[in-house]
């Protein structure tokens, strides 16, 4: 997993993302992988929803923290890291989070409405 996280860091640095964002995203990507004990490419939309829900319920985190975790996962699944080069593939993972009451909306919703 360390090699994978280093790959994430490398991509973020190549895009001049802040070090704080890099550290936060890697933290939540690690937690996500450890939560399911699977490789990210084997994890689907239901598992993403379960992870974010667990953060809110058992972790009792603020909505802002849940949004950071969601954006970390969005970054993970939008990048070429998992071979998802088509935005429609990303929508498979993110559309489940666009339900009332979850407090997390996909940035892709604006594209879908266009």
Q: What key phrases describe this protein's structure?
A:
114 residues, mainly alpha, 6 helices, 0% strand
What report would you give on this structure?
- The chain is mainly α and 114 residues long.
- It has one domain (2-113): Tyrosine recombinase, N-terminal domain (DNA polymerase, domain 1, Orthogonal Bundle).
- The chain is built from 6 helices and no strands.
- The chain has helices spanning 2-14, 19-36, 45-57, 63-78, 87-94, 109-113.
- Helix 1 (2-14) runs antiparallel to helix 2 (19-36) and helix 2 packs across helix 4 (63-78).
- It is globular and about 35 Å long.
- Mean pLDDT is 76; it is low at 89-97 and 100-105.
Order of helices and strands: HHHHHH
Largest sheet: none
Number of helices: 6
Percent of residues in helical segments?
A: 55-70%
Q: Please tell me how large the radius of gyration is.
A: 14 Å
| CATH structural class | Mainly Alpha
Strand-pairing-aware structural class: mainly alpha
Tell me the fraction of residues in β-strands, as a range.
under 5%
Number of strands: 0
Unreliably modeled segments: 89-97, 100-105
Task: Could you tell me the CATH topology label.
Answer: DNA polymerase, domain 1
**Second CATH tier, the architecture:** Orthogonal Bundle
Q: How many structural units, i.e. domains?
A: 1
Mean pLDDT: 76
Q: Could you name the CATH homologous superfamily?
A: Tyrosine recombinase, N-terminal domain
Dominant shape: globular
Q: Termini, distance in Å? A: 38 Å
């Amino acid at each position: 997993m360390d090699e994978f996280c280093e790959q994430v860091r490398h991509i973020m640095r190549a895009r001049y993302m802040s070090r704080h964002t890099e550290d936060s995203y890697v933290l939540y990507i690690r937690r996500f992988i450890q939560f399911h004990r699977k490789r990210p490419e084997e994890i689907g939309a239901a598992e993403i929803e379960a992870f974010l829900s667990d953060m809110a319920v058992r972790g009792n985190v603020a909505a802002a923290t849940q949004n950071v975790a969601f954006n970390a996962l969005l970054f993970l699944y939008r990048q070429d890291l998992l071979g998802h080069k088509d935005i429609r593939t990303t929508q498979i993972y993110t559309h489940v989070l666009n339900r009332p009451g979850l407090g997390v909306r996909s940035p892709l919703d604006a594209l879908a409405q266009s």
